From TrEMBL:
Pfam family, one: UNC-93
Record membrane topology: Multi-pass membrane protein
Presence of keyword Cell wall biogenesis/degradation: no
Compartments reported by the entry: Membrane
Claim: Nucleus is one of the keywords in the record: no
Species per Swiss-Prot/TrEMBL record: Adineta steineri
Keyword set, alphabetical order: Membrane, Transmembrane, Transmembrane helix
Protein name: Uncharacterized protein
Example of a GO cellular component annotation carried by this entry: membrane
Length: 303
C-alpha cells in the first residue's frame, strides 16, 4: 500500500510539473508574438496616416476577430485543433506586422483580415489551454479560483508584452523631429478629422492624426506612455492572482474598473490638452491600465 501511495504521489508531482511547464510555454509564446503586435498597433494612427490606412487596418483586424469569434472559432478549433490554431494565429500576426514595411491599402487591409481572423482562433485555443491546465491542477482546490489565478498569471505575461514592444518603439522614435503645433484647440475631444499639415524646422510636412498624445507632444512619446500602461496593467494582473480567493473580489474589481473608466471618459471629454499639462497624458493611460488589468483575467476566466 505504501508503495502504491508513493507511486501515486510521484505521478501527481510529475503531472503538476508538466502542467506548469506547459502553462509557462503558452505564456511565453503569447508574450513573444504580441510584443511586436502591440507596438505596431499602438502607432498605427500616428504613423500610417495616409488615407487612414493604419487606423482602418486596426478596425478591420478587430472586426475580423469579432466575426470569426462568433461564427468560426468553434469549427476551426474542432477541425485543426488547438495547437495548429495557435500556430496559425502567430503566422497571421507576423504577416500584419511585416506588412507595415510597405503600408499600402491593399496589403494592410488584407493582412489585417488574416491577422484578425487567425488571432481570434489563437486566443480561443490559448484560453482553452489555460482553463484546461488550471482544472488539471485544481484537484482539491476550488476550480474556479484556480482558473482565475491562472488567467491572472497569463494576462500578467500578456500585459508585460506592452512594456517591451512599446519601449522599443519609444527608443526608435525618440529622436523624431518634434512638430511645431501650437493650435492645441484642435487636440483632445475636439480634434478635427481632417488632416492638419504642420511644417517643421526642416520644412517637412508632417500629418498629425492622434487627438491627444501625438497632437500635443508628438508621436515619439506614444511608446513611452504605452510602456507605462503596460507596467501598470502587469502589476494589476499580478494583484488579481492574489485576490481571486477572496469573497466578492470579482465585484470589487469590476466596480473599481468601472469607476476608473467613467472618470477617464469624463476627463477626455472635458480636458483641453496642452504641453504644460503633459503629465495628464501619462495619468490617463495609467488609470486605464488599472481597469484593464483588473478585469481581463475575470472576464476571460468566465468562459
Amino acid at each position: 500500500m505504501s508503495d502504491d501511495k508513493e507511486h501515486m504521489d510521484t505521478n501527481n508531482k510529475n503531472k503538476k510539473g508538466g502542467t506548469k511547464r506547459n502553462f509557462i510555454m503558452i505564456c511565453f509564446a503569447y508574450t513573444c508574438v504580441t510584443t511586436s503586435l502591440n507596438a505596431v498597433v499602438n502607432l498605427q494612427s500616428s504613423l500610417n496616416t495616409d488615407k487612414d490606412v493604419g487606423l482602418n487596418s486596426v478596425a478591420i483586424m478587430h472586426g475580423a476577430s469579432v466575426l470569426t469569434c462568433i461564427f468560426l472559432t468553434t469549427s476551426i478549433g474542432h477541425i485543426f485543433g488547438y495547437k495548429w490554431s495557435i500556430i496559425g494565429g502567430q503566422f497571421g500576426i507576423l504577416l500584419y506586422v511585416a506588412s507595415n514595411m510597405y503600408p499600402k491599402q491593399w496589403l494592410m487591409y488584407s493582412t489585417a483580415i488574416i491577422s484578425g481572423s487567425f488571432r481570434a482562433c489563437m486566443s480561443m485555443a490559448q484560453n482553452s489551454y489555460v482553463a484546461i491546465l488550471a482544472n488539471d491542477e485544481s484537484e482539491n482546490d476550488d476550480a474556479e479560483i484556480k482558473t482565475r489565478k491562472y488567467f491572472g498569471i497569463f494576462f500578467t505575461a500578456y500585459q508585460s508584452a506592452q512594456i517591451r514592444g512599446n519601449l522599443i518603439s519609444y527608443l526608435v522614435l525618440r529622436n523624431t523631429p518634434k512638430t511645431t503645433n501650437t493650435n492645441f484647440t484642435q487636440c483632445g475631444a475636439n480634434y478635427l478629422t481632417s488632416e492638419h499639415q504642420i511644417q517643421d524646422d526642416n520644412h517637412q510636412l508632417i500629418s498629425q492624426k492622434t487627438s491627444f498624445t501625438t497632437c500635443t507632444i508628438g508621436v515619439q512619446y506614444v511608446g513611452l506612455i504605452m510602456t507605462i500602461y503596460g507596467i501598470t496593467a502587469t502589476i494589476s494582473s499580478i494583484v488579481v492572482t492574489y485576490t481571486v480567493k477572496f469573497k466578492y473580489s470579482r465585484r470589487i474589481c469590476f466596480i473599481i474598473a468601472a469607476l476608473l473608466s467613467y472618470t477617464i471618459f469624463t476627463v477626455m471629454l472635458v480636458w483641453k490638452p496642452t504641453v504644460s499639462q503633459t503629465y495628464v497624458l501619462f495619468i490617463l493611460p495609467f488609470l486605464s491600465s488599472i481597469s484593464d488589468g483588473l478585469t481581463e483575467p475575470f472576464v476571460t476566466g468566465l468562459t
